[in-house]
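Possible regression after last week's pipeline update?

I re-ran a chain I had predicted before the update to compare outputs. Posting the input and the new output here so someone can diff against the archived version. Not blocking, just want to make sure nothing changed silently.
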Amino acid sequence: MPHPSPSKRHTLAELAELVGARLIGDGRVEVDGIAPIAEAGPTQLTFVANPRYLKELATTRAAAVLVAEESGISAGQLVVRSPYAAYARLMNHFYAVPRQARGVSADARVDASAKVGVEPDIGAFVTVGPGAVLGDRVTLHPGVRVGEGVVVGDDVTLHPNVVLYPGCRIGHRVIVHAGTVVGSDGFGYATDGGVHHKIPHVGGVVVGDDVEIGACCTIDRGVLGDTEIGPGSKLDNLIQLAHNVRIGRGCLLAAQTGIAGSTHLGDYVATGGQAGFSGHLSVGSQVQVAGKAGVTKDVGDREVVSGFPALPHREALRAQAAQARIPELRERVKKLEQQLSGRKSPETND
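New output (post-update):
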């Protein structure tokens, strides 16, 4: 989908009122979009969320800047507690794409027993299985497959080729990006006599309200109970959630995070890219997991962990520092051993 153009021009006074900012400058000045500090022109707004970029304000050509504290610059200023949150709100205001309720495409296949809410936008080659329930104002892009008995809430958007296996339940205002599969069988086998016997997965997947799931994610259904994603959680691209994983509310999982079966994350957990979790773990709320960390043990509330195996972050940093000194320490030990044995230290190349 191409990037939309701004819908119209807005005065600085209007924008300040929208985000609750204190305006410094001429409120009648109009802007027509948002751009980075170095690229913004005289009809655009920019923002500073990180203090390291404050020095660039001296040369910006922007009409105005979203800032946390007043700065001595010539451009207009919208002073607000959280410039980044205000930027996000204004981006949605400027670049919102009007939804089109085009009905059901003639090339879609919606089972006669399925229920479809008001103002649908169902594209070509979408299939909706028996007994499925679609809420109001649902948008299903081409190639989406909604399985038997799936329940989809209001104002949900499923991008091309999303697959919802039978029995999944999707909350309101959920966005699922292209190629994601929700409800596939988990990796569950019982090995006996050298043969891996498949364990049927008869649970489901429950996705809470206001969740966004990135492209090409795989979310396995539960073996008996459900795999769950809590309200307001956001998943990046290429994430794997195994069977019976439970994610709390408001979690942020970065790309390539992988969580093994029956591990439970509390509320507002944040992970870096490629973080991994062993199965059957309990991870508390407000935990931060660094990129590439391997979590192999339970983690308490509000802990920050990194490394493999994951340790409290300060301990992990000390361990990394010690590891870097191993070659030096090895040579010192060799020399000490030689001195204690009464022999002269020979030259060595290893």
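Follow-up from reviewer: compared with the archived run. The first helix runs from residue 12 to 19. Marking as no regression found.
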